[in-house]
C-alpha cells in the first residue's frame, strides 16, 4: 500500500536539455492577466511549485476558476508565465513550442473531430502533421482504433458515431502520435457516467501500459480518484492546498479518508 499525503510538494529536477522527456517542472510560477497592479488585473496562478515525474498520472482538481486551465495552458505552451519557470523535458514549452510537435498530445473536453473526415482519417490527422508516410499513419491509426474498441468503425463519419465513440476516436488520435505526455482537459465530462467510467478505466490502462505521463484536469473528486495515482487540489489563485499520492493497492478505507480530506479542502 502507498498513500503519501502532503500540503505542498517541491522537488528539484534538471532543467537542461538532457532532462527526461516526461518530466514537467514548474518553479515559483505566477500568471497574471492584465498589467499587475492595474484595475482589472487578475492573478490566476500564485507562486506555484509543481513537479510531475515521468510515468505519473496527475489529476489536477479544483473548483471552476481555480487556475487549472491556466496551468494546463502553460504546460502545453499556449501561454507563458508572468514570472517563474515552466519546463517540460528540460525545455520551455512556450518559447520552444515547435520542438514539442509529437511530444505532447491534448485530449479536449469536446472530441474536436473534423466532420468531413472518417474516424481513421481523424486519427491520422496528427500523424499527417508529423509528416508520417501514408501507409504508416493508416496502420497506426487503425491499430489505435481497434485498441479502443472501434474496429469496424474506421470508415464511419463522426455524425454516425455516439458521443462515447467520438471521444474514443479523440483518444486514439492522441495515442497514435506516440507523444510521451498527454494533457487532458475534462475529456469525459460531457458523457453519461456509465460511458465515462468505462472510458476512464481504458484511458488509465493505456497510459500505464504505454508508459505515458498524463496531466488530467477535473472538478470531480470521484473522477480524480479513478484517474490519478496522484491528486493535487488547487485553491484560487492556483496554489496547492493538498497533494496526495496513492496506488491501486491503497485500501478502500484510506481512499475514503483521502476523499473526505479533499472534500474539506474544497469546502474551506
Quickly describe the structure.
By secondary structure, this protein is of the alpha/beta class. The chain is 32% helix and 24% strand.
Structure description:
With 268 residues, this protein is α/β, with parallel strands linked by helices. It folds into 2 domains: 3-103 and 183-267, Rossmann fold (3-Layer(aba) Sandwich), CATH 3.40.50.300; 113-178, no CATH class. Helix content is 32%, strand content 24%. It contains 7 helices and 10 strands. The chain has helices at 68-75, 119-129, 134-147, 163-176, 193-209, 221-227, 252-267, and strands at residues 3-6, 24-33, 42-52, 57-61, 83-88, 104-107, 181-185, 213-218, 230-235, 239-246. The strands form 2 sheets. It has a 7-stranded mixed β-sheet, sandwiched between helices. A 3-stranded antiparallel β-sheet has the order 3-2-5. β9 and β10 (239-246) form a beta hairpin. The longest helix has 17 residues, at 193-209. It starts with a strand and ends with a helix. Mean pLDDT is 87; it is low at 4-19.
Amino acid at each position: 500500500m502507498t498513500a503519501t499525503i502532503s500540503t505542498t510538494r517541491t522537488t528539484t529536477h534538471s532543467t537542461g536539455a538532457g532532462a527526461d522527456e516526461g518530466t514537467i517542472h514548474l518553479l515559483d510560477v505566477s500568471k497574471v492577466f492584465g498589467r499587475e497592479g492595474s484595475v482589472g488585473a487578475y492573478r490566476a496562478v500564485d507562486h506555484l511549485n509543481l513537479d510531475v515525474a515521468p510515468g505519473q498520472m496527475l489529476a489536477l482538481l479544483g473548483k471552476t476558476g481555480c487556475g487549472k486551465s491556466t496551468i494546463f495552458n502553460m504546460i502545453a505552451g499556449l501561454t507563458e508565465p508572468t514570472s517563474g519557470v515552466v519546463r517540460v523535458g528540460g525545455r520551455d514549452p512556450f518559447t520552444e513550442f515547435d520542438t514539442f510537435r509529437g511530444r505532447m498530445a491534448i485530449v479536449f473536453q469536446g472530441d474536436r473531430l473534423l466532420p468531413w473526415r472518417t474516424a481513421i482519417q481523424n486519427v491520422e490527422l496528427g500523424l499527417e502533421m508529423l509528416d508520417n508516410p501514408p501507409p504508416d499513419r493508416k496502420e497506426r491509426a487503425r491499430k489505435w482504433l481497434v485498441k479502443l474498441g472501434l474496429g469496424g468503425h474506421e470508415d464511419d463519419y463522426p455524425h454516425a458515431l455516439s458521443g462515447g465513440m467520438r471521444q474514443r476516436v479523440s483518444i486514439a488520435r492522441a495515442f497514435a502520435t506516440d507523444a510521451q505526455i498527454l494533457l487532458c482537459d475534462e475529456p469525459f465530462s460531457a458523457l453519461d457516467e456509465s460511458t465515462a467510467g468505462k472510458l476512464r478505466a481504458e484511458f488509465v490502462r493505456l497510459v500505464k501500459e504505454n508508459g505515458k505521463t498524463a496531466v488530467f484536469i477535473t472538478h470531480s473528486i470521484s473522477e480524480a480518484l479513478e484517474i490519478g495515482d496522484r491528486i493535487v487540489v488547487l485553491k484560487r489563485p492556483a496554489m496547492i492546498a493538498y497533494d496526495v499520492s496513492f496506488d491501486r493497492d491503497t485500501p478502500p478505507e484510506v481512499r475514503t479518508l483521502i476523499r473526505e480530506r479533499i472534500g474539506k479542502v474544497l469546502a474551506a
